[in-house]
Amino acid sequence: GGRTGRPAHPPTDGLTVLTLVALGFHAACHTGLGTVSDAISRKDICMTKSLVCLSYDFDALSIWIAKGLTSPTPLSRGAFGVVGVERILTLLEKEAVPGTFFIPGHTVETFPDPARAIHAAGHEIGHHGWTHRRPSDLSRDDEEAELLRGLDSLDRIIGVRPTGYRSPAWDLSPHSLDLLIANGFAYDSSL
């Protein structure tokens, strides 16, 4: 329980649905700093202590391309995401703080070095689609294809099989949770 009416312990079977608020900052209920996966795997959760999980969406160009905005101005905004990632990694290293980065497969393919640097620094990598397309706008087959293509990129280029997922635009379809469970995800941070 606790005052919020949420259970003191998150579910451990199937998919843990975890809500992240305020653009990637989440307060869970135990002590320390950690990744989102750390937050849901702890068994000693209580309502009197806090954990801050810092999470970031490294969308880069994918968000603009998915919206059909491929002129130089929006693409330059997306390319600046690489600079942002470098700055965030420097800050997290300086403060010895772990984070979780949700990355679309397209971003991993386009900017493999920053994606590898995130992983090499010990941060959790989460799945964030392939091209940042909204699952609710896709057929079940197209959504599954986006999910699998993103997984392939993350595995092939970074060498990770993420356990966490954040939907592009934080928007799920009626099929999303079933697809995530079928593909071995432990949590979703889109709800």
How would you describe this structure to a colleague?
- This protein is α/β, with parallel strands linked by helices and 191 residues long.
- It starts with 15 loop residues before the first strand and ends with a strand.
- Helix content is 39%, strand content 15%.
- Strand 7, helix 8 and strand 8 form a beta-alpha-beta unit.
- The chain contains eight helices and eight strands.
- The N terminus is likely disordered.
- The protein is globular and about 45 Å long.
- The longest helix is centred in the C-terminal third of the chain and has 19 residues.
- Strands 2, 3, 4, 5 and 6 form a five-stranded mixed β-sheet that branches.
Integer average pLDDT: 80
Number of strands: 8
Order of helices and strands: EEEHEHHHEHHEHEHE
Q: What is the 3D form?
A: globular
Q: Which structural category do the helix and sheet elements fall into?
A: alpha/beta
Radius of gyration from CA coordinates: 16 Å
| Count of runs of 4 or more consecutive helical residues | 8
Major sheet summary line: 5 strands, mixed
Low-confidence stretches: 1-31
- What is the helical fraction, as a range of percent? 25-40%
Distance between the termini: 20 Å
- β-strand percent reads 5-15%
Which key terms come to mind for this protein?
39% helix, disordered N terminus, three-stranded parallel sheet, alpha/beta, 8 helices, single chain
List the SSEs and their pairings:
Elements: E1 16-17, E2 25-28, E3 32-34, H1 36-41, E4 51-57, H2 62-66, H3 72-79, H4 81-95, E5 100-103, H5 105-110, H6 112-120, E6 124-127, H7 140-158, E7 164-165, H8 176-182, E8 187-188
Parallel strand pairs: 1-8, 3-4, 4-5, 5-6, 7-8
Antiparallel strand pairs: 2-4
